[in-house]
Each structure stands twice: as C-alpha cells, then as structure tokens.
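Repro:
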Amino acid sequence: MTSLTRRTALAAALATTTTLALPTSVLAQDLPTLRLSSVVSDNDIRAEAFAEIAEAVSDTFDMQVFNGATLVAQGSEMTSIQRGNLEMGLIAPQTIAEQIPEWSIVTSAYLFSDADHLQATFESDVGEELNALAAEAGIHVLAPVYFGTRQVNLAPDIDVQTPEDLDGITMRMPGGDAWQFLGEAIGANPTPLAYAEVYTALQTGAIDGQDNPLPNDYNMKFYEVTSQIVLTGHLIGFDVLAISKELWDGFTPEQQETLQDAVDEAIATSTQRHLDREAELVEYFRDEGLRVYEPDRIAFRDYAQQKYLESEFATSWPEGMVDRINALAE
C-alpha cells in the first residue's frame, strides 16, 4: 500500500469514527428544528405531553420545548409564528380570534358540552372550516389541547342555581373583551385582575369569586379562601397547538404523519389525565370543607347563549355554525 493510499484510508477511518462519536445534540442539527413556546409550567400535565411529543419525533425533528413563556411572551405566539420567529406555539383561541373574528365562536360559553364534544368538533367539517381560516393566517392547527372545564369559585356563602343568583357578584375574569363578556354571560359582574393577585383579592374581599378549572383552583390554593365551587361548566378550556403553515407545507408526507401521530397520542393521554384529575378534585375540595354542587346548567346555558347571540361577537360567526356544533353533541 502506498503512503498516499494509507493516508486516504486513515482519513476515511477517522471521518467515520468522528461521525459515530458525535453526540446526539450535534447530530440533531441536521434535523428540522421545531421550537415550541407555551405558557404552562414545567410540572403541568401539558408540559409532560409536549415532552412526550418531542421524544416521539426525535428521529425526525429536533423539537425543543420552552415552557413558562420563556421564549416568547404570552399572547405573542401567533404573531411570532407568522413572522417566522417561532415554529410552534400553544395559542389561546382568544388570541386567534383577535385576528380571525370567526374564531370567537369557540370562546363562547356553553358552546362545547365536554372534552369529547370539543374533539368531535375539531374533527368535523366545522373544524376543517376553522382550521382553513387559521391556515390563511399562516398557522396550521395540530390539535385542540384541553386543560379543564371552568367552574365558578366563590367566597360568599350563597346558593347559586341560575345566572340571576350571580347578579352583583364581583367575579375576577382575565383581561380582554372576550373574557369580560364571558363573565357577563354567566350573570356576574366581571372585573379584570392579574392571576397572581387573585388569592389575596379573595382573602381580603376585594372580589367575591373567580372562575377556573379545578386543577388551577388547587394549584393556586384558592380553596383556602373560598367557601364553595359551583359546577357551572360554562367553558371547556382549551388552547391550540399550532405550527407554521409554511413550515408544515414544506414537510414530506412522512414527516407530517410522524408529527401528527405523536401529537394525537400525547394530547389524548393529556386530556384523559386532566379529566381524571378534575374528578379527584371534586372529592378533595369537599373533604376540605367546601360546598361543591351543580346548579341548573340548562338555565345557565340558555342565558349565556342568548347573551352571545345578541352580542357583537356573533356577527362574525359563520351562519348556522352554532347549530352544527350543537348537533355534534347529540
């Protein structure tokens, strides 16, 4: 073997050895990067689902999850994707509705009866229409991500059976017109307040109540400073897991299938875990001394839907869509 041949063979061997020795983080640079921004905490059930997705697609994508709004600010996920500054985001439907008014329909009270109804809607032709509108705005919807059903949590010891019983009750709601109207639609007097300030406001009597899914009530310890939880079930809480439409369209069918399958499996598991947790917490709060009961939900539903149909929000809703969504629950 000549010296030139030996040098060529040695170089090839070294190149092979170097490639095999590269750490996964270096090799991942050759895969499409998907940065996912979410507002959930790292110990949230949804955060675990996102980690599961990242692991499931690790041979196809370098998926990096940033929770706690550490990558982009809460509420800016959609615009960040549109500007090409972010690949994936967990987006509140209220945020989407700011750009796509038709989407305000899925933020209205008592539209969905439960998590199954939510999923069925997004799998139907109604979901196709909503997703097509989102696609026109540059985002591709991967899945609705259920995180709990909003219930009314009150400090005063009153009996609530109908929306009229909440007349005069100061209810903390998130800021924004859609959220404030939701408070009105269930009969309360809504007021905006930062989430971190709710506990103290309940404790001091600055507000009479707040609404959140039961896991949030537990995590924020609202049950320590309230007397009851009224299971109004007025809003099926969900966010939208979305990806850049331009990026999605650039994937091969195999890449799209890999990502969608991973999302479907992880989110289905996450949804069931949330439902199980909510059922557990009903008993936990009762054991803690809170009164937990269901009011006349039909009265609440009729009152809320009439409020919405008479509001400016409904002017942007596609004709007949409410009836089509209602039919999916039957």
